[in-house]
Amino acid sequence: MFTGWDSFYLMIGGAAGALIGLLFVVATLTGGLGADKAQLGAKIYLTPTVFHFAVVLTVSAITAVPHLGAEASGGLLAAAAVLGLIYSLNVGRMLRGPVHLEAPHWTDFWCYAVAPGVTYLAQVAAAGALWMGVPWAQDALAAALIGLLLITIRNAWDLVTTIAPIANSKP
């Protein structure tokens, strides 16, 4: 099904998996923040970042399944994208609701909720096109995953540059 895309999906899936591991290191930096603050921050910022990396990893794995037809691939990819879209909407709701941390930066709503949501909409469209056998479907899926990977790398960097100075300033 994804003949010729092996290296691409191996590369972005491997990158997503490695970055998930690095986020575990970031999570250890939250130890000095206080339990309530760390849990809320993880729920709003860290967990969605891990989730998006996990979606990139999962989609990469789906593309590697041998003998998986267009309908099955399209259905699985659409399911992953719909879950991601719902998750992004939930993150947006949390960021717009009463946040008991410092006030979110204006970019947080756009980068943690809207941008991932847009990439998930693109993935739904690509999955539907794949299911229907449209020629550009594989290219669209690849573009959507690159977009999701890049915005999630940006969000991971945002976490590190926010949490590390706080953690290092603690006596």
Question: What can you see in these coordinates?
Answer:
With 171 residues, the protein is mostly helical. It contains 5 helices and no strands. The protein has helices at residues 6-28, 35-63, 70-96, 106-132, 137-169. The radius of gyration is 17 Å and the shape is elongated. The N and C termini lie far apart (55 Å).
Radius of gyration: 17 Å
Poorly predicted ranges? none
Average pLDDT number: 88
Terminal CA distance reads 55 Å
The total count of strands amounts to 0
Q: The biggest beta sheet, please? A: none
Helix fraction, binned, reads: over 70%
Tell the overall outline.
Answer: elongated
Q: State the helix count.
A: 5
- Helix/strand-derived category reads mainly alpha
Q: How do the helices and strands follow one another from N- to C-terminus?
A: HHHHH
Strand content: under 5%
Set down the secondary structure blueprint.
Layout lengths: L5 H23 L6 H29 L6 H27 L9 H27 L4 H33 L2
Helix pairs in contact: 1-2, 1-5, 2-3, 2-5, 3-4, 4-5
Based on the model shown, name its key terms.
171 residues, mainly alpha, 5 helices, 81% helix, elongated
Give a short synopsis of this structure:
The protein is 81% helix and 0% strand. By secondary structure, the chain is mostly helical.
